[in-house]
């Protein structure tokens, strides 16, 4: 899903009206800025005025991040077609597709944190500015865009090209998701484990800056759990074949799955089955697949993947950090991302990390309730700071130095 949060209550002061300076300093007076998290399963984006903001319970909207393709029309590979409410064809990822998802093919423009279809990605970004959502012009507002660590530099360069040359944004900044998630907790030192829909990464951070040689990444995350759950359900006699039905599997994962503290023991017991009502009204009884599917996060070998489990990746990232920092990092583990919301995730992670950490080290895991949106919250805080105006890459800088301007100011 694509989540849109817009704060409906703002407090403005004269200090929040920042004017643009010379090269390397940008923020037009009184301008709103856009914080955009480009995720695989959902997006988070918001407008803010200046430095002060509040959260509101009545400003939460959702729409789908993925694109739909009609089964009944001859189209090119790059055409993204969905049905609108009046049954006319539209090339935007509108929310009305939910009513017709059985007639549509779902596809994602990203895979493992990397954009694989820029035409589709551009359409989704265009939808952000459309009359259905923000109802504004991209030329008027700077953008803070987030991305996963260790992404190819070409991915970042192409994103900058699209925003500057297609959307003509006045300024852009691209930041690492994990750093922003730590900011959201009020900390500047710690280690962030971010497990979303397409990628899991661990980032040790000291005084607000990621430690590059300690960053770890594994391409096992929520979508892989959904695929594995689909396989397990097929073995139990339930088939989900189409891309639209895969979204049903994803919902089942979110509502019924959990992580067991002792999966070997649970395998020998008769697991209590959970009932899930499918969109057609029939009932699905889910047994051991409830805990077997998310077990993939800790045991990628279940699908023949040679990657390390996320607990091993976390411990290794800390061990790669400076010896004087390790004790602090073990006591400041911060979770974020949708996959960490699986029931029992924190408890299971703590159990596994204890086995790998030195015995005299205190381990503390922080799992904020708002961790699904922590990257966005941290980005909103960062972009609201008066000192941040020097970090924006202005359109003039980009035109002069192109990709070098982006890499020069990327965390």
UniProtKB/TrEMBL annotation:
Record-level GO cellular component terms: microtubule organizing center
GO-annotated molecular function: ATP binding
Superkingdom classification of source: Eukaryota
Membrane-spanning intervals of the chain: 34-55
InterPro entries named among the record's database cross-references: Actin, Actin/actin-like_CS, Actin_CS, ATPase_NBD
UniProt family annotation: Belongs to the actin family. ARP1 subfamily.
Protein name: Actin related protein 1B
Originating organism: Oreochromis niloticus
Taxonomic placement: Eukaryota, Metazoa, Chordata, Craniata, Vertebrata
